[in-house]
């Protein structure tokens, strides 16, 4: 398996657009050409080698950089590590696509899709997608494109017109996941990073009655891809939630099942009191912070 970066986007703050262009010129050949319009909610943009783009707005202190596969593909691993370090130091990564090419064709995209029943994953299996075309193209999609982590497994030979004869496993990271992965790629072994984050998203294991999926043997074809890799640790920032929003979520998502269990327990208010008692013991600082906004006479 050959591991590389196929997309990099990041935002820097406190840097002028000319400084950013100058910085990127140390990595990419050629110059950036300013366009008459903007994009990505910025008023201005410039395009450089390999489709690299720089976005900015007069008066804003942030500049956004987007580097698709052709742009990052022109850089060496050492150059990419340096650029990732810059991104993490001067700002933050917003998207990173990490890919691995399986030139041995251990398994085909269709077979990956069909193995959903053996998957240990927090993705919704019913939403996995499979597309195939007459020219031999085949892609298995795992996860939601709008989520922080998303996986594509596809026939790279068909997609590249025969230039790259591999089955590509491509992880797409956004938001906090992109920040975490970019930081690791700047200093750690890329193969280890890829394997651990792939296993974090999905793991394929034998199904044994009475045993948890993550405690059974890994399927041989997946072991050939990730070896004995363990899950990457992903700690995301918790979204800020107001007391009113928490109340609305409770009524929308919990009230029906709570009423059902309450009725099933004989309608005894002692059950509700015990439930509240357990919840109070498990409160964390982020929960107690919500109480600060509650009115005194509530």
Task: Please tell me about this protein's structure.
This protein has two domains: 2-226; 243-291, no CATH class. By secondary structure, it is of the alpha+beta class. A hairpin with a 5-residue loop joins strand 4 and strand 5 (62-67). The protein is built from eleven helices and twelve strands. Helix 3 (77-90) crosses helix 6. The strands form two sheets. A ten-stranded antiparallel sheet has the order 2-3-4-5-1-6-11-10-9-8. Strands 7-12 form a two-stranded antiparallel ribbon.
Helix content: 25-40%
Structural class: alpha+beta
Largest sheet, in brief, is: 10 strands, antiparallel
Q: What is the strand arrangement across the widest sheet?
A: 2-3-4-5-1-6-11-10-9-8
Approximate strand percentage? 15-25%
- Give the number of DSSP strands: 12
Shape: globular
**Helix count, DSSP H or I runs of 4 or more residues:** 11
End-to-end separation in angstroms reads 60 Å
What order do the SSEs take from the amino end to the carboxyl end, as H and E? EHEEEEHHEHEEEEHEHHEHHHH
The multimeric state of the shown protein is single chain
Whole-number tally of structural domains: 2
> Could you name the ranges where pLDDT drops below 50 across 5 or more consecutive residues?
none
Radius of gyration: 24 Å
Mean pLDDT: 91
SSE inventory with pairings:
Elements: E1 2-13, H1 17-25, E2 33-34, E3 44-47, E4 53-56, E5 62-67, H2 69-72, H3 77-90, E6 91-102, H4 109-114, E7 119-121, E8 129-132, E9 138-142, E10 149-155, H5 156-159, E11 167-174, H6 175-187, H7 190-201, E12 202-204, H8 220-226, H9 243-264, H10 269-281, H11 285-291
Antiparallel strand pairs: 1-5, 1-6, 2-3, 3-4, 4-5, 6-11, 7-12, 8-9, 9-10, 10-11
Helix pairs in contact: 3-6
